[in-house]
Specification:
Number of strands: 14
Order of helices and strands: HHEEEHEHHHEHEEHEEEHEEHEHEH
CATH superfamily of the largest domain: Zn peptidases
CATH topology of the largest domain: Aminopeptidase
Radius of gyration: 23 Å
Number of domains: 2
Number of helices: 12
Largest sheet: 9 strands, mixed
Bound molecules: glyoxylic acid, manganese (II) ion
Structural class: alpha/beta
Length: 411
């Protein structure tokens, strides 16, 4: 079985075929969670899994599990999961590679008539991106007990559409309970989404863990007034306060450029009229650091800057925590299986900490979990130009296959 390899050409054509669902003019994808485009790729995925004899289960959050039977009915499944939803201007590989490589692993085993001891389940986790419904990794989070079901169902997108309504509309409002059952392990193949592997000329990243993330909503309240009559010194301009805060947040991220990251991804000004001083600014803040103390430091600096700017410009700045995902260390047995499989395949590798969040972050709370990274072009992700080479997808899927087989025989 150590000679078994995936079919790289088939994996690539599957990636290209599903990239038709939600394709953008620039060749990327817009497949927001539970949108019609997401529903279309989900139907494709269910059909493809059923075509190789998998039993497909859909839970109450639309998480899809495609199960291939193992030889020992008493063993819990080994899961291979990631996500098929994308950013609004997303690429063709973020998350998608992990799900479709899982399908390719099952197809390879099917072709070779190999039956594993554990059942295998390929999983499409709903709303990993958090682009439509905050927070990210929402439904893997419920599976792992980090959030409750009603919290997820009641999340709203920016148009006020609830998760529950979008789920029903998609047709993927399943009936299986979310979580509450054991997984023997969870494996996730993903593109690195950063520049490290490519810069070092390495083929595989053996992911040791994931850095911490904190999300905030910020609302700055000033006073709307006439652009032609209100003297500068009497204004309470929410946008000018936001501009100063934006600079401060950037400086907070740059204070320790090796470890700290800070981003304002959403920025909206109201009432949005050329000759009215802006009264309200709504913006998002994303802070990241590999250690909890580091996150505490970034957050404290963010609060201090907001207080100082609010006082100086006579506005109020409200900071609401939206999400906190602590740093995660993956399971030594799963990481070990990935490392051993990579070595056995003869691919160059290094250990790497993930800068992005992943479904595996939450699943690691309830199952031994690990991740495999492959390089992506110029480290660019969350962008329509996101790109990888077919051989990179193939190598990643081979590591996934061999790591799962090793874990299956050892566990
Ligand atoms: C999740 O995808 C994140 O890293 O924001
Ligand atoms: Mn992803
Ligand atoms: Mn993403």
């Amino acid at each position: 079985m150590s000679n078994l390899r995936v079919d790289g050409a088939r994996l690539w054509s599957t990636l290209m075929e599903t990239a038709a669902f939600g394709r953008t003019a620039k060749g990327g994808l817009c497949r927001l969670a539970l949108s019609p485009e997401d529903a279309a790729v989900r139907r494709w995925f269910v059909e493809a899994c059923e075509a190789i004899g998998c039993a497909v289960t859909i839970d109450q959050l639309g998480n899809i599990f495609a199960r291939r039977t193992g030889s020992d009915p008493d063993l819990p499944p080994i899961a291979i999961g990631s996500h098929l939803d994308t950013q609004p201007t997303g690429g063709r590989f973020d998350g998608i590679l992990g799900v479709l490589a899982g399908l390719e692993v099952l197809r390879t085993l099917e072709d070779a008539d190999v039956v594993t001891r554990h059942p295998l389940e390929v999983v499409n986790w709903t709303n990993e991106e958090g682009a439509r419904f905050a927070p990210a990794m929402l439904c893997a989070g419920v599976f792992a007990g980090a959030f409750d079901l009603d919290y997820a169902l009641s999340r709203e997108d920016r148009n006020g559409v609830s998760f529950a309504a979008a789920l029903a509309e998609s047709g993927f409002d399943g009936t299986a309970p979310v979580g509450g059952r054991p997984l023997a392990a969870h494996f996730e193949l993903h593109i690195e989404q950063g520049p490290v592997l490519e810069a070092e000329g390495l083929e595989i990243g053996v992911v040791s863990g994931v850095q911490g993330i904190r999300w905030f909503d910020v609302e700055i309240a000033g006073l709307a007034c006439h652009a032609g009559t209100m003297p500068m010194k009497l204004r309470r301009d929410a946008l000018q306060a936001a501009a100063r805060l934006a600079v401060a947040i950037d400086e907070i991220g740059r204070s320790d450029p090796d470890t700290s990251l800070s981003t304002i991804g959403i920025f909206e000004a109201y009432p949005g009229s050329r000759n009215t001083v802006p009264e309200t600014i709504r913006m998002s803040v994303d802070l990241r650091h590999p250690r909890a103390e580091g996150l505490d430091r970034l957050e404290a600096a963010f609060h201090a800057a907001a207080e100082e700017i609010a006082a100086a410009l006579s506005v109020t700045i409200e900071i609401k925590p939206v999400w906190s995902s602590p740093p995660v260390v993956f399971h030594p047995e799963v990481v070990g299986a990935i490392d051993a499989a990579t070595a056995q395949l003869g691919y160059s590798r290094r250990s790497i900490v993930s800068g992005a969040g992943h479904d595996s972050v939450y699943i690691s709370r309830v199952a031994p979990t690990g991740m495999i990274f492959v390089p992506c072009e110029d480290g660019i992700s969350h962008n329509e130009t996101e790109n990888i080479m077919p051989i990179e997808a193939e190598r990643g899927a081979n590591v996934l296959l061999q790591a799962v087989l090793q874990f299956d025989s050892a566990a």
